[in-house]
Amino acid sequence: MATAGTTRAGSNGNGKLITREDLQAAYSQFMGEGEATARAAAPKGLAVAGAVALAVITVSFLAGRRRGRARSAVIEIRRL
Predict the structure, then answer these.
(1) DSSP state, 79?
(2) Cystine design at 6: which of 17, 35, 56, 77 (Cβ 3.0–4.6 Å)?
């Protein structure tokens, strides 16, 4: 019977024990690869997000400016 902290390998039948250390090593290797990929992609992602934000702000400004011109009437005041 397996002791606490170990598990028998699944259906392959080789009887090898998987220890807690084996699982932790595999998990840290997997997470390390993900962190390295995320760090490499972060500068590109920030640049794209900044460009999209700038484009949205510019379009919003121009649309509001056009609408403001259309709604405002030029009124001439004459003194009688």
Answers:
(1) -
(2) 17
pLDDT per residue as tens digits for the range 29-79 = 888 777 778 788 888 889 999 999 999 999 999 888 776 666 666 677 777
31 in helix, strand or coil? helix
**H or E element in which residue 6 lies:** strand 6-8
Tens digits of per-residue pLDDT, 54-65?
A: 999 999 998 887
Tell me how long the chain is. Answer: 80
* Calpha distance 31→41 (Å, rounded): 15
Which residues, at least 6 apart from 76, have a Cβ–Cβ distance to it below 8 Å? none
Specify whether the CB–CB gap between 18 and 7 falls below 8 A: yes
59, 61, 57, 40: which is closest to 49 by C-alpha? Answer: 57
